[in-house]
Amino acid sequence: MSFEPDLLDPADPRPESLRNLRDWLAFQWAMGLQPVSAAELLRATGSPLAALEAGAPSRRARPEELDAAIASLREVRAKAIPLPSVHYPQRIARLRDPAILLCVRGDIAALTAPSVSIVGSRAATTYGLAVARELAADLARAGVVVVSGLALGIDAAAHRGALEAGGRTVAVLACGADKVYPARHRQLAAEIVANGAIVSELPPGTAPLPQFFPLRNRLISALASAVVIVEARERSGSLITAGHAANQGVDVFAVPGPIHAPTSAGPNRLLKEGAYLVSEVADILAELGLPTPSEPVRGQPRSEEPREADLDSRSSAILDSLEREPATADELGRRLDCAPERLALDLLQLELAQLVVRARDGRWQARLRIGGGH
Which residues are paired to 243 by β-bridges? Predict the structure, then answer.
């Protein structure tokens, strides 16, 4: 695409910035539920306004509706990330049906960090809630962002587990980013915004209608390197998420349960179909190539200094580049021509090995020069 906007901030008073935001909100409003067609129009025309004119939207937003949407985003301090933006998560951008515009509250960097999605039944058992909470906490301690959908049951347990472990978590909504569903999760949502992000592809003010949940589920799976199904009935939204994951090339994990329990029917079927079995967090971390709890993790002393021979060629290239000049992840990705999701995993492993550190300005720098005499 020829049009590459930056992050859109409704608090930015500049007329050109507000005009740009209005154009993207208008396009989202008209074409957001037709993501395949919308993405094709954007590629063909290069801008949301031209795409809107070239398309056949079922409904256009009125000026007062766009004004209200911008005011709502401003009130909750949300920002908008258009599909062509350099800030847009590439794991979603690569989909055939990417979201046109992501409205985000919180830390947008959480959307591109190494992450695992944990989803499951709203009517979860005590066992399921405990497992979701424990897995999320262990993943968070390993530096992995936990993604879920803010729903009752397993979703909420996953978010809380990550937060209690001092980690980051992302909630993907089936309503506007300015709303919270269910309403009883307002406090949980506030904690997520402070320690991660809330994201939605739907226009501000959109109510959580049933048809939006399957749409939302494809983003929950696309944001992650793996999806874990803890509990789910035979026909459930969690299995839709697992289906999206399989189609997207995302690993699917399932927690086994009692054969007669309705909430175990979904995970047990997934296991029969080839999903990875989860009995502990090490099962997930090993598949992602991340350190298990028995290996050195953040803050733990290493028994010996890392050697250049311990690193693969890509990690060595990252270290060499950062030794020459610190860089943000985006700058480093362009410098090394490395996919953002792969680079994020490599940087995490180097950080856990205490070889690189991220400064307050967001730039990465080498902590230890391999074979350099100091």
Answer: none
